[in-house]
Amino acid sequence: MTLDAQTTAELAQYLESAQLSARPVAQISIAHPGLVMDDGYAIQAEIRRRKVLRGGRVVGWKAGVTSRAKMRQVGIDTPSYGFLMDSFAVADGGEIAVRELIHPRVEPEIAFVLKRDLEGPGCHVGSVLAATDFVMPAMEIIDSRYENFKFDFASVVADNSSSARFVLGGRCRAVDELDLATTGLVMSKNGEPVAFGAGAAVLGHPAAAVALIANLLARRGEKLSASDVILTGGVTEATPVKAGDFLQLRMQGLGSVSVRFV
After folding, report:
1. Which residues contact 239 (CB under 8 A, 6 or more apart)?
2. What tens digit of pLDDT does each residue of 113-145 get?
3. Which phi and psi (to 5°) does residue 67 adopt?
């Protein structure tokens, strides 16, 4: 790490304030050009601590930049993770107020829900499948707090990997009932298809993204817990949205999930 505790806390406040006020800010590596990955995760952890102290509850985790399409879109080639708070959750068929976000985009994802703890290092796809209670369709609404949605790796990690909202729905299925690598999906916006893909786009198998998070958390002495929701990363590029848009995701064998932006 290159940052001391005071600077880490100041940058956490800077980024969380941007999120809470829906106000874009300059990426933090401009003022701190020596920023490294561990600095980013320390800032992210401080943001999480602040939210928990105010009564928020961590309900799971998300993987970021896990598909080649997403890597091309944001210009980053290393996956990351972020946390999910209870306040990020939106009901299937619910509404999201765009005034609470800066420049929202929607990603189609496969969500895992764990039935027991999962811990790295050395976590692998087999470990993940054995620890999974069920999977279900999900849409993640990402919203970088940085101006023009531009960032480098350490900066986006600090910004909780652009996490903002998520929607779960469809059917809950056991992992042995599906071939998740070949599970296909289509996401539409206002009735028009805008994204197509299959689970293999996420690191070859979406369970690999869960293992990745477990192994990265182990570096900080943390683990995934039973009942955690894990979003495994966008299968396709993210789709920009605005007020009035209606998004629906249909996933092979898993039903559909939808949300409206107002």
Report:
1. 105, 106, 107, 187, 189, 194, 195, 247
2. 999 999 999 999 999 999 999 999 999 999 999
3. -120, 155
Enumerate residues 6+ apart whose C-beta is below 8 A from 202.
63, 66, 67, 109, 110, 208, 209, 232, 233, 234, 235
Q: How many CB atoms lie within 10 A of CB 113?
A: 17
Phi and psi of 197, rounded to 5°? 180, -175
C-alpha dihedral, 63 to 165 to 169 to 49, nearest 10°:
70
- Which residues make beta-bridge pairs with 230? 61, 112
Nearest Cα neighbor of 200 from 89, 262, 125 is 125
Tens of pLDDT along 19-36?
999 999 999 999 999 999
Cα-Cα-Cα-Cα torsion 91, 167, 163, 213, nearest 10 degrees, comes to 120
Token pair in block for residue 109: 């994802």
What is the set of domains in the chain, with CATH numbers? 5-261 (3.90.850.10)
Please check whether residue 257 is in contact with residue 187, taking contact to mean a CB–CB distance below 8 angstroms. no
